[in-house]
Design brief:
By secondary structure, the protein is mostly beta strands. It is built from no helices and 8 strands. It is globular and about 35 Å long. It starts with 12 loop residues before the first strand and ends with a strand.
């Protein structure tokens, strides 16, 4: 990964092309992040996949049909105590 992460919970998704998107999570105790990483199992490499509009941990993700991206929703906010009702859509290349 580009940065160590913990508690990504159920946000990790496998994309139709076999790559794996890991959005958000914690990089340190009670420190959720907005960044995302992309793993390519064919090459065994990680790369940065951009950032979400807000930090998230304990959130959910789902691959949208028709190659429309990945919907990332909810989760804990910046103080790791409140929740966020926002959503982001990752479009991967």
């Amino acid at each position: 990964m580009t940065a160590p992460r913990s508690e990504t919970e159920y946000a990790v998704v496998r994309l139709p092309d076999g790559r794996v998107l890991v959005p958000g999570g914690h990089t340190a105790f009670q420190t959720p992040v907005s960044s995302a990483d992309l793993y390519n199992p064919r090459t065994g490499t990680w790369s940065a996949a951009g950032s979400m509009s807000v930090v998230r941990a304990g959130h959910s993700s789902i691959v949208l049909r028709g190659n429309r991206g990945v919907l990332v929703m909810g989760g804990l906010g910046p103080d790791d105590q409140t929740t966020t009702a926002s959503v982001d859509i990752f479009r991967t290349r």
